[in-house]
Specification:
The protein has 735 residues and is an alpha+beta fold. It is built from 19 helices and 25 strands. The strands form five sheets. The chain has a seven-stranded antiparallel sheet, with no helix packed on it. A six-stranded antiparallel sheet has the order 9-8-7-13-12-10. A five-stranded antiparallel sheet has the order 15-14-18-17-16. Strand 14 and strand 15 form a beta hairpin. The chain is rod-shaped and about 165 Å long. The two termini are 74 Å apart. The chain binds adenosine-5'-diphosphate (ADP). Adenosine-5'-diphosphate binds next to helix 18 and helix 19.
């Protein structure tokens, strides 16, 4: 497989078939027979026999360390098998005049014998310094400061030119979060790298081996040889000397790095990041020192765990107290929107967002940086038609909703909680696009090197660009704490809404009770009034039958009778009025023509109207309740007739018009008219104008009319002037 930048995540870096050439390797099987060895064996061991593969390892023994007995390797293996190889590693092997570290490990059915120089190039005794460094590292409480201390201490101990803490984000990309470097070097702090820079399989290896040394990027690796018939791929995952992927080597070369060393950092058993060290000249760190560096990683990892938990807890507390405060305000404040957006603590504090909107009761309340009105309208429409869940969040809005690409700078991430889908009510939080305009510190001209085979083009500049491309249109992730906070806030908002709805329901209930009481009251009153009234009327009529009555007395009795009649009418009208509010509408298409004609005929008799004084024009049908419509026309036409009775010639015109959306009737008379200053009150109960004189009436009719028309969702208005007649307009909507 040809490996390049596009497929390096599939590069089998654990079976490179090569080792770094600063050491050598012999692999033996359970019977201590040599099955693999590195080609550079002869560089280290003088006088090698011609055939090594298939031979017992003891045959090499005199070349490795002539002072040790022939079985010493097999003895070490037996010891390591029982007690663990960490007890025996490293074993000092004296080859020629030099001392080597022998590091033994087991894998599959084999044992790997790795030989490395026993002394570091750094000249420092890391083992001795590590204890002090660790206590220096931990002098601060704050996580960032601990990381800063760590890079300073590690740099001091191992002497590399640049030491960084490189942190993996959830999506696998990395960021330099702490750095110590030689003064002549530029800072890489804050730079982001795409996931492909340290692909998944490389991260897996960092989990297996907690330190990793590339001693010399420019050294030619040594091949690992095996017998011709042995085709088993050789898994080097756990080997110290495992050669480096050519892509990674090229990457380091492009950066001018000659040697790199890394220490893995863990958070709850997951790879959290690396302490990454670069040297611009080859640098070897011996096994013991690497083991000491591991300790730094371990201590930092556990402190990380503790500090990270502490910081998570602080964030949790911050969100919680914001939600608590908002809850308190919602229950105290009459307006939910004001509680959530109008105080010092707002919706924005419930999560780590850059903007928020509350869409509630047909209004939009905005906080922080949010899309503009047109963009918001589009987003709300998209939400309503596409998001069926009552809770939705993404850190890549533009890939779900393409129009969001136009406002990705403010809203690459959204979290939405639906208050009411039917009414389109939401709370939406926004996170801005995470891409920051960080410029790469390296020299751009030196980058983008294309090899002759056209494959490797990796460079720091490309890394940053690649990362930029992967994160365009994405925001920082929504954390679990944020999700939890919003879920809690939503339930508090719903509770507050229900409480408020409950209060309205309670008011409704009270109103209903009041209505019922009023009903009983009107019935009782009218019943109690009607009985004595009819007695008065009957007695007056009996007395009136007496033929010997003086004309004076008869007149009085007639007045009593008329008064009783008027009172009876009034009681009936008040009852009618109180009933309208509760009676159900029976909607039909009503032909009002016969109704109008009936009323006009009756009025002509009562008021002795001249023929032709009342003209009926077009009478379109009305959508309404026949009984109630009859009441409307009876009242308005009778007013028009009675208040224009003295005009000569009297003129009353009744006509209707269908405007398409409604039917509008106008009833015009040339009677008394109404003083303009009284117009606003004529639809109120018991209001009669001063100019009516002795014209009979109760002041209830127009109040009944208005109530009926409102029940039909119609309108009533009047044009009138004192002495100039009146025109009443009534409009009924067409369903
Ligand atoms: P009433 O029983 O007094 O007619 P209404 O409620 O029907 O009671 O009318 C209220 C008042 O409005 C009347 O008393 C009268 O002063 C005034 N009004 C109503 N219609 C007319 C009209 N067509 N011309 C003059 N005044 C009117």
């Amino acid at each position: 497989m040809k490996i390049d930048f596009t497929n390096c995540d599939r590069e089998p870096i654990h079976i490179p078939g090569k080792i770094q050439s600063h050491g050598f390797l012999i692999v033996i099987d359970q019977d201590f027979i040599v099955r693999y060895h590195s080609e550079n064996l002869s560089d280290y061991l003088k006088g090698l026999p011609n055939v090594i593969l298939g031979q017992p390892v003891s045959s090499l023994q005199p070349l490795i360390d002539r002072n040790e007995p022939p079985e010493y390797i097999s003895n070490l293996i037996v010891l390591g098998k029982t007690n663990g190889f960490q007890q025996t590693n490293p074993f000092n092997a004296h080859i020629g005049s030099k001392t080597f570290h022998l590091i033994i490990s087991s894998f599959d059915k084999y044992y790997a014998l790795e030989f490395e120089p026993s002394e570091s190039d750094t000249g420092n005794d890391i083992q001795r310094q590590v204890g002090r460094s660790i206590s220096e590292m931990l002098t601060d409480r704050n996580l960032q400061k601990i990381l800063n201390n760590t890079v300073i201490q590690v740099k001091k101990v191992i002497g590399y030119d640049r030491v960084m803490v490189y942190r993996f984000a959830e999506d696998g990309h990395g960021e330099v979060v702490a750095e110590a470097h030689n003064p002549e070097l530029e800072s890489w702090l804050g730079l982001h790298y795409p996931e492909s820079d340290i692909p998944k399989q490389a991260r897996e290896l960092y989990k297996l081996n907690h330190t990793r040394l590339i001693a010399d990027v420019n050294a030619e690796p040594a091949n690992v040889l095996t017998e011709a018939d042995n085709e088993t791929p050789f898994d080097m995952s756990c080997l110290q000397l495992r050669a480096v992927s050519p892509i990674h080597i090229q990457y380091l070369k492009n950066m001018g790095v000659a040697s790199s060393f890394s220490i893995s950092l863990f958070y709850k058993n997951e790879l959290w990041g690396l302490i990454a060290c670069h040297s611009y000249s080859p640098m070897f760190i011996d096994y013991r020192s690497r083991e000491s560096a591991k300790l730094i990683g371990k201590v930092l990892s556990s402190s990380l765990e503790f500090k990270q938990d502490e910081e998570d807890q602080q964030l949790h507390d911050k969100f919680k107290s914001a939600v608590d405060e908002l809850t308190k305000l919602m229950l105290k404040d009459n307006s939910i929107e004001d509680a959530l957006t109008g105080h010092q603590i707002t919706l924005l504090d419930a999560v780590s967002a850059t903007g928020a909107v509350l869409v509630f009761e047909n209004q939009i309340f905005k906080l922080g940086r949010v899309p503009n009105d047109v963009q918001l309208t589009g987003l709300l429409h998209w939400l309503k038609t596409n998001i069926t869940d009552s809770f939705y969040y993404t850190s890549k809005l533009p890939s779900a909703y393409h129009d969001a690409a136009f406002f990705k700078d403010v809203a690459s991430g959204i979290m939405v909680t639906t208050l009411s889908r039917e009414m389109g009510e939401y709370v939406i939080w926004f996170k801005a696009e995470q891409l920051q305009t960080v410029t790469w510190a390296g020299n751009p001209e030196k980058t983008g090197k294309i090899e002759s085979d056209g494959t490797i083009t990796l460079s720091p500049r490309h890394s940053f660009e690649a990362w930029s491309q992967t994160v365009t249109g994405t925001s920082l992730k929504w954390s679990n704490e944020e999700v939890k906070s919003v879920v809690r806030l939503k339930s508090e908002i719903m509770y507050a809404i229900n409480q408020k709805a409950g209060a309205i329901r309670m008011l409704n209930e009270k109103l209903k009770q009041a209505y019922e009481e009023l009903d009983t009251f009107s019935f009782t009153i009218s019943h109690d009034l009607k009985n004595p009234l009819s007695s008065i009327k009957s007695f007056a009529q009996i007395l009136m039958r007496d033929p010997d009555l003086k004309p004076q007395t008869l007149k009085v009795l007639e007045r009593i009778n008329n008064g009783a009649n008027r009172m009876n009418n009034m009681i009936n009208e008040v009852l009618d009025y109180s009933r309208i509010g509760r009676s159900d509408l029976v909607l039909n298409e009503v032909d009002v023509k016969p109704i109008i004609i009936d009323h006009v005929n009756e009025l002509q008799l009562v008021y002795d109207v001249q023929p032709g004084a009342v003209i009926i024009g077009d009478t379109p049908k009305i959508q309404g309740d026949a009984v109630m419509l009859s009441q409307v026309f009876a009242n308005i036409i009778s007013n028009a007739v009675k208040y224009s009775a003295k005009a000569s010639p009297q003129k009353v015109l009744i006509e209707g018009k269908d405007t398409g959306s409604e039917v509008v009737y106008t009833i015009t008379d040339n009677g008394l008219g109404i003083d303009i200053k009284h117009l606003p009150r004529i639809f109120e109960l018991f209001n009669r104008m001063d100019n009516v004189g002795d014209i009979e009436g109760s002041g209830v009719g127009l109040a009944i009319v208005k109530r009926i028309i409102e029940k039909h969702k119609g309108k009533i208005w009047v044009d009138s002037e004192l002495g100039m007649g009146s025109t009443f307009h009534i409009a009924f909507p067409k369903q």
